[in-house]
Amino acid sequence: MRRPIIAGNWKLNKSIREAIDTVTLLKRQLADVQAVDIVVCPVYTAIADVAEVLSETAIKVGAQDVYWEDKGAYTGEVSAPLLKEAGAQYVVIGHSERRQFFHETHETVNKKTRAALKAGLTPIVCVGELLSEREAGRTFGVVGEQLKGGLAGFTADDLKQIVLAYEPVWAIGTGKVATPQQAQEVHAFIRKQLTEGWGAEVAQAVRIQYGGSVKPDNIAELMREPDIDGALVGGASLEAGSFADIVKNAVVVGVR
């Protein structure tokens, strides 16, 4: 049985005060929700304050990136142990914006994921294709290469601790959404790759989120697909009411 997971990626938004106000509202609105894992990912500077507000709730805190070394002369970077100390329990790795704007590679995704696991953080590892790659019929090739490089060398036990997120880049912040059938097709492909690499038991245990213009009115339809286990939510997670509605609408579909 795969427990649904809904994560909100706030990207470069919200001051500490704004973050506290948002999770204070979420804490009330989602107090009775128990059938889904809920994660919010604020900017680094707000992680500790958000974690404190959510300390006695079921809502977990994540970071939006991590560096693979624990410490050293790496100006501007933040390590997995420091994120853990600040109160983070999850970390997003390999988001398309990190790949596009900050030159993330399969190798760095792999190293960051390894560092997150070592520190006891749950990695949310992102994969997904550009519009040009989809139109060229390269979706499976691109996603397959991202999985192969990003997860190279990991054991079956490692994989069971990782959440994957399929985010078609052409659907992020554009208002476009992959149809449930399009999303399911790629999620099923990902699970097939996991089966071939680590066996059916692991493949059936790993949760795969969908990310790309997820909103309260489309989450249930997406979640009805057999291989979609949750969502990595961008813009709609910035407002407490809309994010809470996404979580509640996902719960309606139930645990698989």
Query: What general outline do the C-alpha atoms trace?
Result: globular
Order of helices and strands: EHEHEHEHHEHHHEHHEHEH
Helix percent reads 40-55%
- Total beta strands: 8
Largest beta sheet: what is the strand line-up? 7-6-5-4-3-2-1-8
In angstroms, what is the radius of gyration?
17 Å
The chain-level structural class is alpha/beta
Number of helices: 12
Largest sheet data = 8 strands, parallel
Distance between the termini: 5 Å
Beta-strand share of residues: 5-15%
Spans of at least 5 consecutive residues with low confidence: none
The whole-number mean of residue pLDDT values reads: 95
Quickly describe the structure:
The chain has helices at 16-29, 47-53, 80-86, 96-102, 106-119, 131-135, 139-150, 156-160, 180-198, 200-205, 219-223, 240-253; strands spanning 5-9, 37-41, 59-63, 90-93, 122-127, 163-166, 208-210, 230-233. The chain has 256 residues and is α/β, with parallel strands linked by helices. The mean pLDDT is 95.
